[in-house]
TrEMBL record:
Belongs to the HAD-like hydrolase superfamily. CbbY/CbbZ/Gph/YieH family. This is Phosphoglycolate phosphatase. One of its GO terms (molecular function) is phosphoglycolate phosphatase activity. NCBIfam families: HAD-SF-IA-v1, PGP_bact. PANTHER family: PHOSPHOGLYCOLATE PHOSPHATASE. Gene3D superfamilies: HAD superfamily/HAD-like (3.40.50.1000), Putative phosphatase, domain 2 (1.10.150.240).
Amino acid sequence: MTEFAFDLIGFDLDGTLLETCGDLTAAVNHAIGTIGLAPFAEAEIRTYVGKGARVMLRRALAASGQEDPALLERLLPLLFDHYEAHVAVHSHPYPGLIDALEELRGAGVRLAVCTNKIERFTLPLIEKLNLAEYFCAVIGGDTTGLLKPDPAPLRAMVEKAGGGRCLFVGDSSNDTLAAAALGVPSVVVSFGYCDGPPAELGGTAVIDHFDELVPLVRNWNH
């Protein structure tokens, strides 16, 4: 029995554990550059992140005046190959994350990941950033064949991690809806790729920095 209200805390990946927009931007710009389109600034790509690589590229193409589905299918493998080869060039953990993970793990709380990013990118990214040791389960976007906000990936994460009282931490409505459907509380990180005002995404609580996570779950009263 830990001092915390939860046996297991799960995390989304992009925009929650990690700032990944730099590498995603580079991959999009590489793909669209092959057909002569102008590159996007990272701030613009940030607004396209959160629903998967296909949607991210579709949004970038639409903003460039290109909405041909066949073009999307042709460029997507180029984006994937570039991203796979440069998955951790600019990506990094958010401030305070490692200290929070260390404290939670030290208190006996199990930690896990549930992301819509496919395993081909998720597992190498976590390894390259030396985070794999913290997580007893990692569920990617192709692990179950379903994506958040469907609760199936989150359910698979809980089962793989050994069950128990679970909290999920994310940055979008995909995360809060999946958690709600599974009947577990959720925390929204306001610094991620939020698809709306953080306080309006349906989470149980909001944090602005990972320094706030451990005190929040230690004194959980939601």
